[in-house]
Design brief:
Structural class of chain A: alpha+beta
Shape of chain A: elongated
Number of domains of chain B: 2
Distance between the termini of chain B: 36 Å
Helix content of chain A: 10-25%
Strand content of chain A: 25-35%
Radius of gyration of chain A: 14 Å
Largest interface: A-B, 41 and 48 residues
Radius of gyration of chain B: 25 Å
Oligomer: heterodimer
Largest sheet of chain A: 4 strands, antiparallel
Number of strands of chain B: 19
Helix content of chain B: 25-40%
Strand content of chain B: 25-35%
């Protein structure tokens, strides 16, 4: 069944140089295992194709049921140079949760 | 000996300009041993150098001193110590100002310490001659690219000098560019006698510092499930109940707003995270994949199990440099056809600026239509006909005066543009300096920190 990531996880984001980081914490260990498979760097890069101009890196934190993504070159120059409204990537966490996934029945 | 003591450490301000209510309520509304406050961002240091160059008594967080004026009587009464990186680029002036405030309040028997040695703006030539390259940590570029435009240069120093200051009896410790977690680790080293090569403990302190450093962001602020957060106005600021073994309980004072759950704490752990296995600090490398968190009653989360490694032989250096200017102004456009009219207005601004003889190259122009999902670009489709949009229009460039022409050609659109232009109440925008950020490394042997304690 198609579901938004909003129903599976919470998120937080902030700036990292000219990029941002997006942390995603799954609502359960089972959902975490599902997201490890589904939420690939390629998929995240495609989701943020008009925001993230660089590559996407992914780190796993199974202890927190969480994944951490680095979105390189996603702030329009970054730090003090950018003129974008969201100069620090504060909203990238919520942007991530808009992603739609094919979720197996019974997982949520 | 089994040390079961609990030391309570809080953070009341996460940045220069944060609410005064944080520190005030932390010292008033519950038990506390240490109040830490974080004031410094990269841009802040550059602004402070500029203030100091105009007035040798400036260059620190002046509102820290104003805040102290309000809380010091309570801190003195309850024995709460204050640790803050409010010294900016002028800890000595900050110390003098605090001594003055304490005398005015009629308080005696307090020791104020400053930690110096992080500010290397006047030593760069010597350090370069001595072999420090200060290559850009992100891009690898040579310092020569920006050498003559550097406006501030500070080393991210660690917790040891803060602990030393507390060992000398300081009630208030003021640093320059100490890392945020160091403000928390310093008191832990002082209280529990942790050794500087006990990397698991230092890593645990680093994790505590990371959770605390943005104030209410771990107690329900900026939390995805915001509807679960009660009483945002009186949101509780975080308090860590630390134990000698490095474990701690993250909580907040009773009868405050917000909430402390595994999810609110984990959210903050993920904030501004890079490689979680290698969280670099001046005193250790913390491994965030070893952190265990568990709910320990209402609004209490236990954090334990943190592992750390030896630190690198270098400190991080943060330099700021002057990198041209930027300007941006806003107008509000109402419908019908708000988007089309906003785009027209942006074009008209640049065309009129050109009539003044000022050319703004396309790549330096900036146009953003707030209300068309600019923050979710490519993710959430924009509404086809938003009832109103905010036009943000501006540019970057080397010529400040040329950019200011843009600021003068916004308001005229109210009478000389399409209908439905408003929202010009904030006045005429002006160009401001772009402060470039230059991260680098420095050999630890090249940095000497000092502690100076004064008593009233």
């Amino acid at each position: 069944m198609k579901k938004q990531l909003f129903e599976l996880a919470i998120s937080r984001s902030g700036d990292k140089g000219d990029g941002s980081n997006v942390g995603v914490k799954a609502n359960s260990p089972a959902i975490y295992d599902f997201l490890v498979k589904e939420l690939t760097p390629e998929r995240v890069k495609a989701h943020f194709s008009e925001i993230c101009l660089g590559e996407v890196e992914r780190y796993e934190l199974p202890n927190l049921n969480a994944l951490n993504f680095i979105l390189h070159d996603s702030l329009g120059g970054g730090g003090t140079e950018t003129q974008k409204t969201d100069a620090q990537g504060k909203t990238h966490g919520l942007a991530m949760l808009h992603m739609e996934l094919d979720v197996p029945d019974g997982l949520v | 000996m089994n040390d079961e003591r609990i030391v309570r450490i809080a953070n009341g301000q996460g940045f220069w300009g944060d609410s005064l209510l944080g520190p005030l309520r932390l010292v008033q509304e519950g038990p506390l041993d240490y109040l830490t406050l974080d004031y410094l961002a990269e841009v802040t240091m550059s602004i402070m150098q500029k203030l100091k160059s105009r007035d040798p008594n400036q260059g620190y967080a002046t509102d820290f001193v104003l805040m102290l004026q309000r809380i010091l009587p309570i801190c003195k009464e309850r024995g709460i110590k204050v640790v803050a990186n409010a010294g900016g680029v002028n800890p000595q002036a900050c110390q003098q100002a605090i001594l003055h405030v304490i005398k005015e309040l009629g308080i005696t028997g307090m020791k104020i310490a400053i930690v110096e040695g992080d500010d290397i703006i006047n030593d760069i030539d010597d350090l370069v001659a001595g072999g420090e390259a200060f290559k850009n940590l992100d891009t690898g570029e040579s310092l020569d690219t920006v050498r003559d435009r550097i406006t501030s240069a500070n080393v991210y120093i660690g917790a040891k000098p803060i602990a030393d200051a507390l060992d000398q009896g300081a009630d208030i410790v003021i640093t320059g560019r100490a890392t945020d977690p160091s403000l928390v680790i310093g008191p832990l080293i002082h209280e529990f006698g942790w050794s500087m090569d006990d990397f698991d403990k230092l890593a645990a302190g680093t994790v505590m510092g990371h959770i605390l450093e943005c104030g209410a962001q771990c107690t329900g602020g900026n939390y995805t499930r915001w509807r679960e957060v009660e009483d945002f106005a009186r949101i509780g600021y975080p308090v860590a109940e630390a134990k000698a073994d490095g474990s701690f309980v993250l909580t907040k004072h009773d009868n405050t707003g917000g909430l402390v759950t595994e999810d609110t704490v984990a959210s903050q752990l993920l904030y501004e995270m890079g490689d979680p296995e290698n969280y670099l600090g001046p005193d250790c490398v913390a491994d965030f994949t070893t952190i265990q968190i568990a709910q320990d009653g209402k609004d209490r989360v236990r954090v334990s199990g943190v592992k750390g490694k030896a630190p690198t032989p270098t400190y991080k250096v943060s330099m700021a440099y002057s990198n041209g200017y930027k300007i941006a102004g806003t107008l509000v456009l109402t419908g019908p056809d708000a988007v089309e009219k906003a785009k027209l207005c942006a074009d008209v601004v640049f065309d009129r600026v050109a009539l003044h003889g000022v050319k703004i190259p396309d790549e330096d122009r900036f146009v953003e239509l707030v209300g068309t999902n600019v923050c979710y670009q490519g993710i959430v489709p924009a509404p086809e006909q938003p009832g109103e949009v905010i036009l943000r229009v501006g540019a970057k460039g080397a010529d400040r005066k040329a950019l200011d022409v843009i600021g003068r050609e916004l308001a005229p659109l109210v009478t000389a543009g399409p209908p439905g232009v408003t929202g010009f109440a904030a006045g005429r925008p002006r160009a401001s300096e772009i402060v470039g950020y230059w991260p680098a490394l420095i050999d630890k042997d090249k940095v000497t920190t000092t502690v100076t304690v004064k008593e009233v």
